[in-house]
Amino acid sequence: MTAIRRQSAASNVSLERRAWNIRRKALLMGEVQGQGYIGQALGVADVLAAAFFHVLEYRAEDPEWEGRDRFLLSIGHYAIALYAALMEAGILPEDELETYGMDDSRMPMSGMASYTPGMEITGGSLGHGLGIAVGMALGLKRKNNPAFVFNLMSDGELGEGSTWEAVMSGVQYKLDNLVCLVDFNDQQADGKTTAALARGREEDKWAAFGWHTQRVDGNDLKAVVAAFEAACKSDHPGPRVIIFDTTMCKGIKFLEEREITHFVRVEADEWAKALTVLEEEKPQ
Amino acid sequence: MTLASMKRKYEPRKVQLGPDGERVATSAMIASLAAEGYDTVAAPFGHALLEMAKKDEKIVGLSADLSKYTDLYVFAQAMPDRFYQMGMAEQVLMSAAAGLAREGFNPFATTYAVFASRRAYDFIAMAIAEEKLPVKICCALPGLTTGYGPSHQATEDLAIFRGLPNMTVIDPCDADDIMGMVPQIAAHDGPVYTRLPRGKVPSVLRQYKPDYQFQLGKAQIIKDGKDVLVVSTGFMTMRALDAAKKLADDNVDVAVLHVPTIKPLDTETILAEARKGGRLVVTAENHTVVGGLGEAVARTLLTEGVTPGFKMIGLPDEFLEAGALPTLHDMYGLSVEKVVQSIKGWL
Ligand SMILES: Cc1ncc(C[n+]2csc(CCOP(=O)(O)OP(=O)(O)O)c2C)c(N)n1
Ligand SMILES: [Mg+2]
Question: What is the third-level CATH fold of B205-346?
Fold first, then answer.
């Protein structure tokens, strides 16, 4: 098992600043469209910063490089968050930011593999990512390719049967090159996730199936990095999961404090306000 | 296979601007279908179901994390003890609806059309349809009614459910259809799949035919005409009626036969209308041209030896693009302008 690698070492930009940049780009895209899954993007920004600037191996100029770690976005509606990270990583050109969600843009509102460099799979229909990740992890092993497969999924996806089929499959094939990242924001379309199917003890469920399991505060960058380190370096003979408890709209107080729903409404004048608020907390 | 061999569209794409140079944005998931010039009714399905549920104690509602987005919330909020939140799990949504039906209840299960027709299909086929259980599957985002791309565009659901024995399949046009339909499917003792316009739904049919009443299994002439017979379903009936108005300016007289029930098909009315000679028959549906209304009508006509000029308006046999809904409707021939153009071109 390879240890954690490179990108961050090659850069002197702090992870805090990376996360801030991701939040800022997501807000700018939301402003362009006047809408977007901004609550999710702000919530998951720290996880993406750690992934793209501390963990993943990739070549910005060649997003299909065979040696890359695969990063699957199982949650197509989180595309705005991944676009921000891909731009921050130099995989997507920043000057396309303003095309977000527009006709003919390479960044449609729901993530699709055929549109966007760096978007490994087509999302939108939830519950697909982990199964595909199992297959890619099997494929990498067949090719003796030491890369990891990361699958970013949501807590809502914990309700889909397909997720649990893949959970068992990953154990059956001892996929120690598979890392599942669960954004547990306790939100899904009709309300709280903990009021629907994922009623607590999520980490115990994964552990009982045989996964290397961690649950951490997904908005505490140090904890996020440590969890990635532990997941990648562990000699556990099977797949790994990190459940990240995150806060929707994290980093923009006035949004965090409003009634949180699946699709957080932001009024036309609030995008600029959010960007101003963010500016005040710019890290080094 | 390498990724590079997959069909990709990586080259920077040109952003299209609207007529006034403005950027055209993808319509939101929550947006209602734009229908200029029509009054709208808010959440007609939810309100109609609630009314029925007050009369029929056996009615229960279930959703797979989409009660808010299928208008079922109106019922769920008013009758919380008769609503089951199944979480985002479409398979158990359908199996559990089957179980409730077995115990004598009259379940209405909602999700998006793509998830019922794709993820939950086997559960609908075996647990519901094969057993002829009276489960009413009501699904938002029919056909091309969102710009989110193929994951949310149910372009082949009618073909899928038409192919399933015992199913009744409905594609309502507007709020009048929905409100008329709910009591009739509630009373129907068998499985039903209906598409569901949601949110602010236009009221169209009664503007043209004030005494219009939805009748399960029946096609109805909404507007008569001498030159062209449009046989349409779902919101394409609205498009056909709007197109007929424009075509009248060019002295083209268009009849519109609305066919909300796709299965069983009202072949009697369709044949009778198609036999009124001399009219070009044009089918129009918000669905792939494969396996939907158009092919069902073609089969009906051919097997009875009725052979008028025949054309089909529908979506191509492709996964569609993402983008703004008006752009996409224009691109795929479902806009009023494109319907007018097509019909003129065929005359
Ligand atoms: C298979 C499937 N079922 C339903 C939906 C509709 N849907 C889109 S997002 C969503 C909520 C899913 O939960 P989660 O991803 O945790 O939502 P969030 O945290 O973004 O609010 C639902 C039900 C879908 N996209 N795919
Ligand atoms: Mg969630």
Answer: Rossmann fold (3.40.50)
